[in-house]
Amino acid sequence: MGNAIKIGIAGFLGRGGSLAAAVEGHPHARVQAVCDIDGERLVSAAAAIGADPYMDYDRMLGEADLDAVILGTPMQLHASQAVKALDRNIHVLSEVVAAVSVEECRELVAAQARSAATYMLSENYCYTKSNMLIEALVVQGLFGTVYYAEGEYLHDLKDLNEITRWRRRWQTGVDGITYGTHSLGPILRWMPGDRVVSVCCQGSGHHYRDPRGEHYENQDTCVMLAKTRQGALIKIRVDMVSTRPHAMHNFQLQGTEGAYESARVDSEVNRVWLSALDDGNREWMDLRKLEGKFLPDVWRQASSEAVKSGHGGGDHFVLEDFIAVVRGERSNRLDVHTAMDITLPGLVSQESISQGGTWLEVPDSRTWWS
Predict the structure, then answer these.
(1) 226 φ, ψ to 5°?
(2) Pairing state of beta strands 285-286 and 5-10?
(3) How far apart are CA 259 and CA 255, in angstroms?
């Protein structure tokens, strides 16, 4: 590959474009080609960064001499586009979710099995400062045995649905947990070696209509309960249509020796209690007080530009990790099976809610590998 990994970005005029700056600033990568369906805007945008423009994804894969692609396209395209790249032995960094059906998940795992390239899921909330700090505390054993966690994704998409219309079909047009990886991804990092084995899902009903007067198929709040192989309980709440003040990402973690609750509003702080650091009063501590001793090096050494990147710095660190994985410098924290671990529970929840909340088994993609 030479000194620089040649990257193609699909969905460049949307989500993909927000990652281009991080690629361009990396000493071992460059944007070789960009792809989008808006040809008029694409030509000038591509010229501005010195990349070749393509309106056809297949053509970009075939002509652009790429080492890797970043998929910033709508979520219903992720799996099929990833499979096409893997079948050409082109590395893939895919935005979430990995796939929109269990069958697509099977096809993606099969593509990774026959490919010489690497698949990685771009779940950027696994890389925020607070989430990586909690992961470090768990690894140190300071939470004891972790047995319960909560994750919430509360993001009113009613207006955005009308701008990026695919959301109206794939995020709020399907009942159940359609966009749960931002919550489940970090939680499973806090439960190393564990995976969800069964889920059930219920909703709160339909109280909002779109501009055409139609109810959103996705119920206002959907809650998925999940049991893990090691017996832990996880609660995931997703609400993308309720009208409410902003509080997008919320987390809780409970172990035998510690507890964590993320801040819900700007006036609060992320708070943690750890028995090993307790003075006997059993009081919450500001999580930031533990950064000096426990913050991972990737954050400790981060530039100001990295810290300010999108999604709480996650955009920078997930891309940096991907490039290091492609270069053989690090193991893949978000490989295809990890992607399945945080994607499949939501897909199975959609079947559960259609059956009135029945508990259903979540398949293990590792048994699909051949």
Answers:
(1) -135, 135
(2) unpaired
(3) 6
Neighbours of 102 (CB within 10 A): 18
CA 224 to CA 235: how far, in whole Å?
Answer: 6
The answer to whether residues 70 and 19 touch, using CB atoms and an 8 Å cutoff, is yes
How would you class 151 by CB atoms within 10 Å of its CB: exposed for 0-12, middle for 13-18, buried for 19 or more? Answer: buried
> Given the DSSP bridges, would you call strands 5-10 and 68-71 parallel, antiparallel or unpaired?
parallel
User: What angle, 0 to 180 degrees and rounded to 10, lies between the N-to-C axes of helices 17-24 and 39-49?
Assistant: 10
Cα separation, 248 vs 172, in Å, equals 16
Model confidence at 261: pLDDT above 80: yes
DSSP annotation string for 263-326: -SSTTS--EEEEGGG--SS---EEGGGGHHHH--HHHHT--HHHHTSTTTTHHHHHHHHHHHHH
Q: For residue 302, what are its two tokens?
A: 């981060």
Alpha-carbon torsion, ordered 51, 52, 57, 60, to 10 deg: -110
pLDDT of residue 370: 58
Q: How many whole angstroms separate alpha carbon 54 and alpha carbon 33?
A: 7
Angle (CA) 148-95-174 rounded to 5° is 70
Q: Residue 314's pLDDT is what?
A: 78
The token duo for 266 is 């700007």
Tokens 């996705």 map to which residue?
218
pLDDT at 73 over 80: yes
- d(CA 176, CA 125) in angstroms, rounded, equals 21
Percent of the chain clearing pLDDT 90 (strictly above): 87
Mean pLDDT of the chain: 95
Res. 327 pLDDT band, cuts 50 70 90: very high
Neighbours of 144 (CB within 10 A): 15
What are 63's two structure tokens?
A: 């002509």
Q: What percent of the chain has pLDDT over 70?
A: 98
For residue 110, pLDDT beyond 90: yes
